[in-house]
Amino acid sequence: MRSRILTKSRHVIDCITEKIMEWIETFRNLAGKQGYEYSNLTEVYTIRGDVSEQEFVQSFLKERSRTIRQNRYRMSVRIDDFYNESMPGEIGKVTLYCKERYVDEAILVTKAEENSENRLIYWKFKKK
Question: Could you point out which of 46, 72, 111, 126 has its C-alpha 20 to 30 Å from the C-alpha of 21?
Fold first, then answer.
């Protein structure tokens, strides 16, 4: 008899606690305090200095910036005039950090045979 009463009262207390937490979250959302939160992921782009001003690179960075803002990531761009490319078509690299800890690194590559206005830039991860 006692255990049934305790079990039912725990259930009722859990339900009330859950409803209170939902209302607090609702009021917090209405107040707009969560509108400026960001994810902990940061993308750091290092671009070769000789291609940094070209139109296809600028449009790539602009589009990435728009996408990153929608996902609430952070982005940083560095121009390196002394960047050494390790493969043909390489224009830079992107390094991923989470809470300022290194996650992974990819090379930014473009195809050389495409026209200079609409080059496709893609990430190429290093195999481990």
Answer: 72
**Residue appearing with tokens 């009330």:** 16
45 vs 51: CA distance, rounded Å: 13
- What would the two tokens of residue 68 be? 């990153």
Q: What are phi and psi of 34, to 5 degrees?
A: -95, 0
Q: pLDDT of 56-98, one tens digit each?
A: 889 999 999 988 888 888 899 999 988 888 888 899 999 999 9
Measure CA 55 to chain center. 23
pTM over 0.90: no
Look up residue 75 and give its two tokens: 């982005």
* Strands, E assignment, the chain: 41-48, 74-80, 90-98, 101-110, 121-125
User: For residues 109 and 64, is the Cβ–Cβ distance under 8 A?
Assistant: no
**Position 28 pLDDT exceeds 70:** yes
